[in-house]
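Ticket closed. Logging final result for TetR family transcriptional regulator.
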Amino acid sequence: MTTKNDVKMDRRTRRTRLLLQEALLRLLADKPLNRITVTELTELADVNRVTFYAHYHDVYDMFDQLRLDLIEMYTDMTYRHTQEMCNGDYRPFIREVYMSLDGREQLLSLLSTPSGGNLYADIIDAISKVCTETVAPQITLGIGGASGRAIGIDGAAAADDASSTDETTTDQMTVDPTMVDPTMAKTISDYQFGYIAGGVVNMLKDWFRRGRRESIELMVGMTSNLISHSGREVYRENLKLLERMPGTAGTH
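Final structure:
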């Protein structure tokens, strides 16, 4: 059972962590992580050292937890919009990406610091990983067209489904499944969603670097338009390339 004291302590803990995180982000704007000390961090946050060590082992541990929190935020965000992206609509996801950091300039500025270089790549990997696991299997479903066979993103051929063999939608792939190496099909998917994730995050990063002069709606529209040119049709065309590439044809 949660007591009022527990709630009060949770609020106090969150406030303390927020103060420390804001102080760390301010310091990272001026110096690399390896030059930041616990002393200057706690002085800037107006938190004593004992309190700091109650939450973190050291500055590196604090940065790592901040990094993991940010990655988790983008991972959860991507999962929330997988169904829309499966239908080819990336706009709701892209809008939330921009909205989530609006008013949190210091957190976004972390991507522009030397210490945020790896974090930038981690966020791209997190978004790409979720899309590869959840969206890609849907856009590859029906790759066999009228044959009724589908090559899943995990490289396995899906079992025949009598209910889905009667008709083939215009969104389904029409590549001969016997001519596509499942491993290469997954590789193409990895490249495509890595490209999409990198594009979204890079647009966000550039928007901040330019002073966020453009409205969120304009950025959402531009980013969505660019991403729309990397959708199902492009994936279909890339799969067709495998049929013509030596050593990439599927085995019979």
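The CA atoms of residues 82 and 134 lie 7 Å apart. No further action required.
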